[in-house]
Amino acid sequence: MRKILIGALPALAMLGVSPVNAAELTVNWDTPEDFTDVRPVNESRKGFRERTLASLEEYLVKLAATLPSQQKLTLTVTDLDLAGEVWPSSFVGLGNTSADVRLVKRIYIPRMTFSYSLADETGALVKEADVNLKDMGFMDGVSSRFKEHPLGYEKQMLKEWFNDEFKPELSAKL
């Protein structure tokens, strides 16, 4: 378990958010080595997984910074399936090299399962849920703008969920 807010002070500062005005965020990655697909393309599994999870944590920090101060958001991620599927390059017609490629097609949608709890400054539970998140239209509309960004589809999926899920809390902050 890591309290992300502490390690995210530089990211919050770049956003112009003071830690005093940001919700506390804790992200627990429950056995990430068993996740459905956090598979690298031509690098170590462990390094890719660590880099991927760190990037998603950094993005979650930005989202949590929009919640009212003194709240605490805790997420426990139980599975992650990145957009696309990793295949040998020879399988997808790119020659007989030993390289792998991540092939992104409509059938390989991004998915994430997690549970969360949001508590107020007294520790009272504001809301909690088990979430089975997936974006079946990740290659259409607004989401398609993010195809060139690392983990763009996954981050857009999280942003849409976050804005829908915490709309009342976000409105209260204004």
UniProtKB/TrEMBL annotation:
Would you indicate the residue range of the signal peptide? 1-22
InterPro entries the record matches: DUF3016
Q: Which Pfam families match?
A: DUF3016
Which keywords does this Swiss-Prot/TrEMBL entry list?
A: Signal
Q: What is this protein called?
A: DUF3016 domain-containing protein
Organism classification, top ranks? Bacteria, Pseudomonadati, Pseudomonadota, Gammaproteobacteria, Alteromonadales
